Amino acid sequence: MSEHLTCLSSMATRSLLADLARFHEDRSGVRLRIESVGGVDAARRVRAGEGVDLVVLASRIMDTLEAEGFIAAGSQVALARSFMAAAVRAGRPRPDVSNEDALKQAMLDAPSIAYSTGPSGDMLKTLWAKWGIGDELAGRVVQAPPGIPVASLLERGEAEIGFQQLSELAGAPGIDIVGRLPAELGTDTVFTAGRAATCRQAEAADGVLAFMTSGGTAEVKRRHGMDAA
Fold this sequence. Notes:
D-Maltodextrin-Binding Protein, domain 2, 10 helices, alpha/beta, 6-stranded mixed β-sheet, 229 residues
């Protein structure tokens, strides 16, 4: 009988984890059941002591959870580096987002902007504050509720341009991806995985973590718009 583990993650790594879990089960017999929700909700559930074995979230959140005692000390591993991207409704003009000035202008020109909760939303707010345009954009921004993809707002015409992790935008219907945000802005996010304090199968969980960060998984991560961390 195969072992069974549970994992709670944010939406950004949902598809990647599904593939990695399938590959790991084929080679080890250890089944990983993954639930992906909004990152804010995931952190809340971990803090509530929900009985999961593994947690995958942005490194900043994971560090906080480990410091609070909800992630087993020293168990974190860097899973993947994710990149923010811009997208528009399918067929709409694609603005230039290739450099900082062009991206800022694209936001100023957009009649409406969709963004997500979690790390990518926080990064956009930081950029708006840096550029001093937060007040100017205030009436034009639409934040997707936790767990709701930005792509769905674009497809329904609720926003002209949207920003989210590339892994969440890739393959979504009804949108065109404009491109990654400029690398010099430092908007990429490292997602880490770690054992929850509630994990009762530490050896099996550590085996999953070792596999997910092994060199053989790099190509899978690239297919999902991420780099090995």
